[in-house]
Design goal:
Blueprint: H1 2-17, H2 22-29, E1 35-40, H3 42-49, E2 55-58, E3 61-64, H4 66-69, E4 72-80, H5 83-99, E5 103-110, E6 113-121, E7 125-134, E8 139-149, H6 150-161
Length: about 160
Amino acid sequence: MKRILTVAALLLVTITSFAQTGRNIYEKYSDNDGVSAVYISPAMFKLIGKLPEIKADVEDGTVDLAPVVRTLTGMYILSSENPAIREALANDVKKFVSSKKYELLMEAKDNGQTMKMYTVGDQKTVNSFVMYAIDQEETTFICIDGNINRQDLEKVLAEQMK
């Protein structure tokens, strides 16, 4: 019995270590020809987070992004028009959001284009935000990691929606 539990524990650790992250997906595709890639590191977010206010212009004024930016630990952006990469990237993103139990926030479909937004976290914190868009010509993946206070995020979104 002890041996079975040990093997089961090792198997669980192995499976967990192979689980994809936004960074894994970024690293898999970022060096491919025909892929546009952007990575923003935790150091950059720390540097930006030292600013007292980070204002973004919206239609009816400005919104302070500083409370959210201070909590970010990484941003990964990929975009490709290469048909083989587009399909593989879309499949990897779909596996990624389903394996981490992401919650679908929004889905929009229009003329063959699909855009979905997901988050994972708990009642107080958003640990990751994923957005991906697919159309006939391009696939785009954005993953933002951090420990975002859900109230701060909701406040920023509410101010933007005014």
